[in-house]
Amino acid sequence: MDIKTQSELLDDFITELQNQASDLTDTTEGSEIDVIAGAVSTGIDEIQKVALDKFKKTFFSTAEGDDLEYLAKDHFGDSFARPEASKSVGVVTFSRPNTNLGNVQILAGTIVKTPANAAGSSQRFRVISTVTMTGLSINASVEASIAGTAGNVQNGTITQIETTLTDSSVTVTNGDDFVGGSAAEDDSQYRETIRQLIQTLSGATASAIKAKALNVSGVEQATCIETLQYVKEWDIGGNVGVGDYFAIPRAKLYISDANGTASQALIDSVLSAIEYTRACGINVDVLGAVAISINWSATITLNPSGTNYATLQSDTSMISDEMTKYVQNLDIGSDFDRGLARLYIMQKFGATGTNDLTDFVTNTPTGNISVFENEKAIVGTITV
After folding, report:
1. Which of 55, 233, 345, 359 has the highest local Cβ count within 10 Å?
2. At CA 326, angle to CA 322 and CA 327, rounded to 5?
3. Assessment of whether the complete model's pTM goes beyond 0.70
4. pLDDT: is 59 or 366 the higher one?
5. Average pLDDT of 267-287?
């Protein structure tokens, strides 16, 4: 639909008026015709804007804010509501040098935390379920006290116990990074969530299971692989096979967080999420991917006529940022292909993009890097 500006509407009104009454020639500013034309064109322009605004609210690609959520819930129900900020979850290990003080009960709600930063604040986490330490160590699941990315902390940083325990010699640490915390989704992220949720409605397909996994907070990549396992019935008492071999369908779902792997807590969350998506009787093994670090260095040739020529002469971070994004977005099981990587960068910064580069040459790796189906390429050292 062709949307005209207020100025175009004004000109159209005057033209049509004069076509109908050619003796009406005074269209100078302030004339009666000018006043009438201005009022009519302004009114039509406002009607256009209101109609367009209402029209935009009926499409997922153009609706925004509360209108986008209302549209999703109206079409598909409350399960399509915008995801709120989520809390980071993970596992900490409580340890002690001896068992002289007997069993130590670590109650649900026990607070552990990181040391205070320069501003005097710590990231606090609470134990989700009560555990009892009978030996020298025990693991406990914890979640951040507040939702959002602030709860995403590196391994080895949760080292303080705020809640008093019956054995003061007990220490705590986290062996893995915590990466599950996320902010409330913005419109762009929410549209992708809606797309994935719509995909899950098909149910039991590989793409539906993958989409369901990607909706779990903390999952960055997921790959579902279908296999047939050939088996034969076995008579245990008679120690003999019965009948012919037959195939049992199985599926492996590899998931990864921002580090290219997955904690047991994240795997458990995905197992719970896909329970009502998988087909009845079909087992889906959820496995953490294996991280494979990719070091990528490249030489660029700048175009003096490029949009960002002055900046790129001294700061190539916009190139390295896109290189980083390319590796991060590789699916689990996807190889690093030098040719495809170059094509991605040149589409962004070559003649069809910002026109900043006339050439991009990968120096390392010196060849393509193949990965197994369970491996996820992650960013190593990026150099331009």
Report:
1. 345
2. 125
3. no
4. 366
5. 87
In a domain, 119, yes or no: yes
Six-digit token string for 43 = 């009114």
> From the DSSP assignment, how many helices (H) and strands (E) are in the chain?
9, 14
Last residue of a domain, one of 288, 304, 320: 288
CA 37 and chain centroid, separation:
51
Strands 171-173 and 89-95 turn out to be: antiparallel
Same-domain status, 295 and 284: no
Domain boundary among 288, 317, 342: 288
208 in a structural domain = yes
pLDDT-derived band at 304 (thresholds 50, 70, 90) equals very high
| Per-residue tokens: 89 | 């979850």
Instruction: Find the domain containing 140 and state its range.
Output: 89-173
Q: Which residue has the tokens 């670590």?
A: 106
Is 76 inside any structural domain? no
Q: Are 107 and 152 in contact (CB under 8 A)?
A: no
Q: pLDDT higher for 206 or 330?
A: 330
